[in-house]
Amino acid sequence: MKKEIPIFAPWLGVFETLKVINGEIQFFKEHAQLLKESAQALGLKAPMEKRLQKVKLPLQSGRLRWIVDTQGFRSLFQEEKTKKRAFSVLGISPVRVGCHNWDARYKTVSYLSHWQARQESENFDEVVLLNEWDEIASVAMGNIFWVKEGIVYTPSVDCGCRSGVVRKWVQKQVRVKEGRFGLDRLGAAEEIFLTNSMLGIQPVNRFLSRTFKLGMVVRTLQQEWKRTLKI
Asked: Among 23, 39, 114, 150, which is disulfide-ready with 44 (CB 3.0 to 4.6 Å)?
């Protein structure tokens, strides 16, 4: 029996954040698929791709959000320049995510735990989020990868992370080993980098007491990312 959606449900919604360069959406189809999957998981109806294609954008660069909730679909565009940082300083958040929680696996409008983690990270550019088993899940606003002896690692989605667009892109460029990992893996890493749709590939140069140089894996991925986006 299908559950009835309440009239007032401000928590029940999903969104996608898309990078726009000079009026052109990057990874349109990939984001459309993720929006559909997220909406279906919450019992919502995502718009068809034809509807998404009709969203009018100015010839500007910025951030586009597609939102689906109990009231339907809407989009928001914000002109902005991507804040470019050569490196990021990474910390650890006391906030935990549940590996089975919707707000960890999907971009729900109830994104409070991730936002809380980001807001409380005053001394860091980003923070690692652990799940209830003290396994690495993600960072507050993206996914996390690290390199050890030439092998690229990232948490499995079963740990409570989102299979984001850039995460999938990385997995097409290099062989990535997914699994359940503790913080000790980051402590022994040779390279660490973060991903999200706005920043692309973001290297980490400091985590706890360790510092990192720009490694070959991250450098190669950054170059390929620029070629993909033609920037």
From this structure: 39
All residues at 6 or more sequence positions from 167 whose CB lies less than 8 Å from its CB, including other chains: 143, 154, 161, 195
| Angle made by CA atoms 143, 178, 189, in degrees to the nearest 5 | 70
pLDDT tens figures, 159-168: 999 999 999 9
Give the chain's domains with CATH numbers. 13-79 (3.30.470.10), 88-229 (3.20.10.10)
Instruction: Show Cβ contacts of residue 71 under 8 Å, excluding neighbours closer than 6 positions.
Output: none
For the chain, the farthest-separated pair of C-alpha atoms sits apart, in whole angstroms, at: 55
Residue written as token pair 């991250």: 218
Decide: 203 and 88 in contact? Cβ < 8 Å. Answer: yes
Beta-bridge partner residues of 96: 130
pTM more than 0.85:
yes
